[in-house]
Amino acid sequence: MAGQTETTPQGAVGNRWVIAAAGVVMQLALGAVYAWSVFRIPLTKEFGWSISEVTVTFTLSIFFLGVSAVFGGLWMARVGPRTVGLTAAALYGAGVFLASFSADKLWWLYLTYGVLAGTGLGFGYIVPVATLVKWFPDKRGMITGIAVAGFGGGALVTAPIATRLIESRGVLPTFAILGVIYLIMVAGAALLMRNPPEGYRPPGWEPSEAQKAQRSARDYTVRGALGTWQWYALWALLFLNVTAGIAIISQAAAMAEEVTGVTALTAAGLVGIISIANGAGRFLWAWLSDFIGRKWVFLSMFLIQAVVFFLLPRATTFGLFTVLAFIVLLCYGGGFGTMPAFAADYFGPKNVGSVYGLMLTAWGVAGIVGPTLIARIRESTGAYSNALYVIAGIMLVSAIIPFIVRPPLSQQEAAAEEPEPTPAPPRERTT
């Protein structure tokens, strides 16, 4: 099978940090999708499309990212990370490149940048996350945090480059140039992607007793994982955390204007500040989870957010409001950084691509629920304060889940259940 050819042979491990660096490069290229806002005004000016019509392109990209991540994870379990990564490069690069032929054809922009590139995004997103947790059993949180932070940082790198290209070449030629760049970056990184040998452990590393207590004793298939209540508990953790963070993201500028009374221009600056928190939180919380445990990270994030959302309506100065929103987005990013390692701990690293890929549906559902919840409450009550209090209550109740969740069958429990070996009967002496 292709998946077997993409597994490193025993005795030829090499440098796992090279694979980690390749994963970051891949995520930086994929995360460039978050720089979509730099194309919005040029497209509306050149072709007369409305802001909402242009924004649908980004919405389609994110939707197809979530859907295709499920299939990418399932396919990767069969063929290995390199094949899926190269497919992602072809789809993503071609989608962005072909968007350069969208002149006066909005439907073509939707099909290329939205559907085709979005599908490539989902295939690519899952590859480094699922591969690196296998190479770094000793640093699962840190390494997935680094990889996912790369996705969050893609916009910071791409936005200024794309802006200059648009000014010098035009918006459609910029799509063509970036499509080629993305293809090279993702394909080059994919060529370095491979699974470690079966049962790989870094030299000299053994899991601690605390790690054994929080890690499963077996690898679960998707069907096996769905047969446990823990999979749904982890799905709920991701869903609830994303719901809170994306509610703030969707209304940040408008909320800052209403609560603090600043101008629209000042409030718009909040969006850039909290995007930094999103990227930083993906690494910081995931790194911390290697020391205190994944469940305690989620418990901490929920309790912190419960307090922060309760305080937000009282943050009448822009500085205080920005600090509180920054904390929420640190937690929002922390969920994405920590959950891949959490899934690998509970369901094993072997099939984590498909298990976590399916779990990413929580992202898509929360992307609808969070903004809708805060907008509806704002419309019905005339103020954001009640919506923020509701989310504070949701975060407080959500803290119950990480408090009670545990692995389906921990390594400690499995060891305790193993029967003691029966001593061999004494051999009779012959004379």
Summarize the model shown.
The protein is mainly alpha-helical. It has two domains: 15-197, MFS general substrate transporter like domains (Growth Hormone, Chain: A, Up-down Bundle), CATH 1.20.1250; 212-408, MFS general substrate transporter like domains (Growth Hormone, Chain: A, Up-down Bundle), CATH 1.20.1250.20. 77% of the residues lie in helices and 0% in strands.
Folded structure, characterized:
This protein is mainly α. The protein folds into two domains: 15-197, MFS general substrate transporter like domains (Growth Hormone, Chain: A, Up-down Bundle); 212-408, MFS general substrate transporter like domains (Growth Hormone, Chain: A, Up-down Bundle). It has helices at 2-5, 16-30, 37-47, 51-79, 81-98, 106-135, 140-169, 171-191, 209-213, 222-226, 229-260, 264-292, 294-311, 318-347, 352-359, 361-381, 385-398, 400-404, 411-417. The termini are far apart. The mean pLDDT is 89.
Question: What would the keywords be for this entry?
Answer:
single chain; 431 residues; mainly alpha; Growth Hormone, Chain: A; 2 domains; 77% helix
